[in-house]
Amino acid sequence: MKQFIISLFVVFLAGQMAWAGRAPVKNIGKDPYASAILLNADTGEVLFAENADAHVYPASVLKLMVLFVVLERVQQGTLQLSDMVKITKEAFKMGGSQVYLDPKEQFPVEELLYALMVQSANDAAVALATHVSGSKESFVALMNQKAKELGMKNTHFYSVHGLPPAEGQKVDITTARDFGILCREMARHPEVFEYTGTRVRDFRGGKFIMRTHNHLLESVDGCDGFKTGYFTAAGFSIAATAKRGGRRIIAIVMGSKDRKVRDAQTTQLLAKGFAMVPAKPGQAIAVIQPETSEKKVDEVALAETKAVTPIGQNEKEVVLADGGGWKNFLMGVVVGFVLCALLIFFMARRKSRRSGKYRYR
After folding, report:
1. Which of 38, 189, 190, 221 fits as disulfide partner to 47, beta carbons 3.0 to 4.6 Å?
2. Is 327 noted as a catalytic residue in this protein?
3. 285 forms bridges with which residues in the sheet?
């Protein structure tokens, strides 16, 4: 225990010295954000964009590229998720968000990927990069190569963690549109969401509990990714996605001055996206069910209206039907019968009141 506390103290001091030597970076944070883009993940259609090509700092959102490059190596068979990663002194000295890796330790690639996404661990990013490519610099080259292949024309990475640059280094640069390209590509690989969709996970045998920085995983239905990022000059950024009714929507919000504003804006954008893109036949959509309503609603009839709303506390999933002419006809008959019955009831009641001994005023 004593050695662990000493290790934490050393890491803290190293982190403080590293931050003290950071190069000054222009503050780009704005209210509500510096840039944003909303995409239909399936088609690539841009549903909304505002300053989408403005240069921004991705901060920890760039760890998505680290994840993508590593998983690509796993898919190619040159790397295994079970491969053990030895922790270097360079990873040990990393500041910022971390899982406090120690050179005496080693972890499977898979565990460090969870640390990378859930805890946004900078030390895990360095450990993975060094294991895959031999050095951070070599891995950064892989990141830039992949960005070029994907068509991310306004992106250039200088780090594997997204922290503010040290003296003599440059800050990572990207755009909301470029990260939309990356996220759309990542969405084609289901294994990505195993990491980006995890809220809480044990690390180091339960001695360390990792909790996601992406609060939309808890507040937005269908949200299973991707990643948040922040440092003072960069502002609060997020690449988010959610899937409902067979549709996947991607929202990128960069450079917000306030975390809650960023999350609120992203939530609104995702809702806007689902409202704009119709649900696919046979897939679940959401239809609001008021708390005060005690009536049962015909699910098929509601689904056929194609009204799409976010699934929330007072809502109910239904299935979008392909046809339903006869069902609509029968529903119309039932509704008509109920209305006629109510009309007869109220007319009879009114007549009985008028014929009674006392009249109501």
Report:
1. 38
2. no
3. 318
Residues in the chain: 361
Its sign, for the CA torsion 331, 334, 340, 346, is negative
Q: Does residue 283 contact residue 251 with C-beta atoms inside 8 Å? A: no
Instruction: Given the residues 63, 93, 136, 243, select the one marked as catalytic.
Output: 63
Q: Is 35 a catalytic residue?
A: no
pLDDT at 147 over 80: yes
Q: Cite the beta strand spans of 77-120 per DSSP E.
A: 84-86, 106-108
d(CA 272, CA 39): 11
pLDDT at 188: 97
Out of 35, 93, 97, 120, pick the active-site residue: 120
Tell me which fold the domain 25-276 belongs to. Beta-lactamase (3.40.710)
Strands 247-256, 235-244: pairing kind:
antiparallel
Which entry of 35, 60, 237, 256 is annotated as an active-site residue?
Answer: 60
Would you call 301 helix, strand, or coil by DSSP? helix
Residue reference for tokens 């000493």:
6
Query: What residue spans define the domains of the chain?
Result: 25-276, 284-319, 326-355
Active site residue 352: no
What is the distance between the alpha carbons of residues 63 and 50, in angstroms, rounded to a whole number? 24
For residues 96 and 122, the answer to whether their CB atoms sit within 8 Å is yes
What are the residues facing 249 on neighbouring strands? 40, 242
Q: What residues have CB less than 8 Å from 55, skipping those under 6 apart?
A: 28, 154, 173, 174, 175
Residue 322 is classified by DSSP as: S
How many helices and strands, by DSSP H and E, does the chain display?
12, 11
pTM of the model: 0.75
